[in-house]
Every structure is written in C-alpha cells, then in structure tokens.
Write a structure and sequence with these properties.
The chain is α+β, with helices and mostly antiparallel strands. The chain contains 11 helices and 10 strands. The chain has a 7-stranded antiparallel β-sheet with strand order 1-2-3-4-5-7-6. It has a 3-stranded antiparallel β-sheet with strand order 8-9-10. It is globular.
C-alpha cells in the first residue's frame, strides 16, 4: 500500500550542544569504557542464520584474543551501568556469549548477548552510532507513549537496551489465527500504535521495526505494539510515512480491523489514545518543553523534506499553520498542538 520508500541512506546528525545538555540534565550522558569505533576492530565475521537456516542479515563478529578480553570486560561494565546504575559487583557473574553486527540498519548496530553465569540466563543490549534523530525518537517514546527504553549516550556512542517481544513480521505469520476476541484486540492496539506514531511523527514502522508484547490475560491475551527503531523520527517528507497503516507489510493486521471494526469504533480508539498521549504530555510538560525547545532549533532533515511534509500536513489538517514551520521540530510541535488540542483541554478539566 505504501508507495514511498525511505531515503536509501538516511543522513545522520550529531547531537547539538543543547541536546547534549538536555541529556546530561536527565542522566543519559555517562562516561563509558568503550566507544563504537572500538567494536569495529573485529578480525572476522560469519553470517548469522536463524533456526531455519535463513540469513538474518546479522553477522557474528570475532576478535583477536588481546582485543577480545578488553572488549568483553568493557561490555560487561557497560551492561552493569545500563542495568544496575554502575553496581560493578554483578560483573563477576557476567560473560559475553556473542557479538553480532548488522550493516543493514542506519546506525549499523552491534548486538551483545550477555549471560549470567549463575543461572545461564541471557540478555541483549546494543552498541550504536549516535544520531540525534534516534535520541529524539527515544525521548519522545518515553514521554508520549506507555513505553520506556533505557539508553546511555557518550560522545559518538549510543548504548540501548533490548526490547523483548515478537517481531512484527513473525507476529503476523504466527499469531493472527486466534479467536475473534483476540483479533479485535490486535486491531484495536494497532490503531493506537498507528496514532502514537503519527502524533509524534515517528516514521518507517514496517513490520520489522516494531515488536508485539503479548501478555496472557483472564480471557484471551493483551497485546501492545512497541517501536524498536527510532532512526526515522521526523526525517522523511511524506505524511503517509508516519502512518504504519500504509505499509503493505502491515496489511494482515489492517485486514483484521476492516473485518471486525466499524469506523465509529476506530475513531473512538484514536480519540482514546490521543487523550492518553495528552495526559502523558501534561504530566511531563517540563521535560517535554525542554526537549521540543531543542528539537525546534536542531537540524533533523533537509529543507526539501521539511517543506514537503509541511505541505502534506496542511492538506491533512486543512490548516495552513504548518507553512510557517522551518524545521522538523517545529512541525512536530505544531502537529502535537493541533492533534491534541481538544484532549489537552479535556485532561485539564478532568483533573
């Protein structure tokens, strides 16, 4: 359904001084014992295949012994900083099982599998290149959605926790053949996810860029769609790029909504989610204002994309206020104000 593709190579933008000050104020800036560039010193790589022998587009990388010891020790220390706020006593129980590298993503991430030697339980985290778009995406996720993603930033390196769940493409292949009750819940949650992405202009939510968190309930299951890729926060110029419903990869879920939901129900779920977003924005208004203040002044895309998105949102909202926007940050702020205007008033009255 989606005819517009993202730029072949998204331009990465280094965080501005004002954004770095914001990150330091809110505890995201931490001196780390390792940089992204250190991870690139591997001596060999082998393709990583899934359980069915299919290429995952990740490579398992291998380091010379002298490099491996230092890198593994540093990664264990970073995990302790990320998960226990620097309690280094846990390090003696940790070991690095595998390091994978993906050349497919914009930030070319390394995925670290770390094991607790006491019980063989494992976890993952990521080492990525810093990109201001991704940082803004992570921050807006934490403020405006029901989800949080722990991350740390240092110089040109971004450390990010793993978000557990079923990848969207796997979910559609394996979990849609459920009773009608659950199919309705899935369609409802996708509508809310679609709304969250559009309100804050998070793009490129094709099936492999989000996960579905499934929680067994008294009757059926509860579902939550969560973004895991924030590289396309307010970068492209197409309005439909920020609406997951327009990506053909999501058609199986769209079909569930068309089958089970009337238009009035869809509208109700959209309004419910806008109201929740507005309440979250109001409860974190100081932090959100500081973030948006940085965002409106920073360069997150090129002028052509800013102009195109402004024009498309003028048509969408039937409001020419977007024509005065000169940055992606200003567009996000204007979109928030327009979409949430009614809900902001309601949330103030309800309190």
């Amino acid at each position: 359904m989606h005819g517009n593709k993202p730029s072949k190579k998204k331009v990465m933008f280094a965080p501005s001084r004002r954004l770095l000050q914001y990150l330091e104020q809110y505890g995201r800036m931490v001196v780390l014992p390792l940089q992204y560039e250190d991870m690139l010193r591997y001596m060999a790589a082998t393709p990583l295949l899934d359980t069915k022998g299919k290429d995952t587009l990740w490579e398992t990388v291998h380091y010379d012994h002298s490099e491996r010891v230092d890198i593994h020790n540093a990664l264990c220390e970073i995990y302790a900083i990320l998960k226990t706020e620097g309690d280094m006593e846990v390090i003696e129980h940790l070991s690095i099982a595998r390091i994978d590298y993906c050349t497919f993503g914009n930030t070319k991430p390394f995925r670290i599998r770390i094991i607790n030697k006491l019980n063989d339980n494992y976890d993952h985290f990521y080492v990525k290149q810093v990109d201001s778009s991704r940082i803004y995406g992570l921050e807006l996720e934490g403020i405006l959605s029901p989800n949080r993603v722990s991350y740390l930033c240092y110089d040109k390196t971004l450390i990010e926790e793993h978000v557990a769940g079923v990848p969207g493409d796997d979910f559609m292949a394996r979990f849609l053949e459920v009773p009608k009750f659950d199919q309705i819940r899935i369609a409802k949650e996708f509508i809310k996810f679609n709304e969250r992405c559009f309100v804050r202009l998070l793009g490129d939510m094709r099936a492999y860029n989000y996960i579905v968190d499934i929680t067994p309930d008294i009757e059926g299951s509860q579902y939550r769609f969560r973004a895991i890729d924030f590289d396309q926060q307010s970068y492209e110029g197409w309005k439909s790029f920020y609406l997951p419903q327009y990506f053909k990869e999501n058609n199986p879920i769209i079909a569930l909504g068309m089958k089970h939901l009337e238009s009035d129900a869809v509208r109700q779920y959209q309004l419910e989610e806008r109201s929740l977003i507005a309440r979250r924005a109001r409860s974190s208004k100081v932090r959100l204002n500081k973030l948006i203040n940085c965002m409106t002044k920073d360069k997150m895309s090129n002028p052509e994309k800013v102009l195109k998105l402004s024009q498309e949102l003028v048509e969408h909202h039937k409001n020419d206020v977007f024509l005065s926007c000169h940055s992606m940050g200003e567009i996000v702020l204007t979109n928030l104000k327009l979409v949430l205007k009614k809900e902001f008033i309601q949330s103030i009255i309800d309190v």
